[in-house]
C-alpha cells in the first residue's frame, strides 16, 4: 500500500507539473482601433529627422501598422529595387505604407511626378498641396490614374488651403476622388471646428492628421494629444457617426529632435479615448 501511495503521489505531482507547463500567460488585448471602421497610422513627417529604421522601430513599439510615406524615406527617384526593399523592410516591422505625401506641387511636371511616384510605390492615395491654378490638371490626372487625391490644409501659416472650408470651396466641382487630408490641428488654428467640419465634409475626407494644439488661433502650437484644446471624445464619436473608413495618422510636431515619448503619449491618449467613449 505504501508503494502504491507513493506511485499515486508521484503521478499526481507529475500531472500538476505538466498542466502548469501547458498553461499560457494571458496576452494583451488587441489595439482598440481594431474594433473601429478606421485605422490608426503615422504621418511620415513626424520622423523628418530620423531614418526609416528608427521610424519603423517606433511604429512597431507603438503597435501602429500604417505609415504615410514621405520622400525623405523613399525618394522620388527610387528604383524599383529600392521600392521593393522599402516595402520589405516595412513588412518586417508589421507596417504598411498606405499613401505618399504631403507633396507640394507648383508645376504640372511636379503633379506628373507625384502621380507616377505613387503608382510606382504601389499606393492609390496621394496627399498633396497643389497650387490653386493646378487643380484642373490634378482633376485630369485623377481621372487618368484612378487615384484619390487628398489636399492637406495648413492653417494660418501658409496661404494655400488654410482650412477645410477653403479646400471645399476649391474642389466641390471637381472629380469626387479629389478630397481632403484633414489636419484637425491646423483647422482649429484657423478658427474652425474640427468636429463640425468632419461632419460637414466627411464624404470627401480621405485621410486625417491627428494632433493637438494649445489654442484656436495662429499662435496656438502643437502639443501631445490630450494636452491641448481639441475635444477628442467628441471627435472620436463623430468619426463613428459618419462611418469614416480611412486612416487617422498622428502627425507629431513637438520636440521633433526627440519626439518618441510624445508620440507614445499621444497614441496612448487617443486609444484611451477610443475605449472610454465606446458603448
Give an overview in words.
With 279 residues, the protein is α/β, with parallel strands linked by helices. It has one domain: TIM Barrel. 43% of the residues lie in helices and 18% in strands. The strands form two sheets. It has an eight-stranded parallel barrel, surrounded by five helices. The chain has a two-stranded antiparallel sheet with strand order 8-9. It starts with a helix and ends with a helix.
- Note the main sheet: 8 strands, parallel, barrel
Q: How big is the Rg?
A: 24 Å
Alpha-beta classification: alpha/beta
Q: Helix count? A: 10
What is the residue-averaged pLDDT? 93
From the N-terminal CA to the C-terminal CA, the straight-line distance is 62 Å
Widest beta sheet: strand line-up: 1-2-3-4-5-6-7-10
CATH class equals Alpha Beta
Query: So what's the overall shape?
Result: globular
CATH topology: TIM Barrel
In terms of topology, how is this protein built?
Blueprint: H1 2-22, E1 39-43, H2 52-61, E2 66-69, H3 80-92, E3 96-105, H4 108-121, E4 125-130, H5 135-145, E5 148-152, H6 164-171, E6 178-183, H7 184-189, H8 194-201, E7 205-210, E8 212-213, E9 222-223, H9 232-242, E10 247-250, H10 260-276
Parallel strand pairs: 1-2, 1-10, 2-3, 3-4, 4-5, 5-6, 6-7, 7-10
Antiparallel strand pairs: 8-9
Helix pairs in contact: 4-5, 8-9
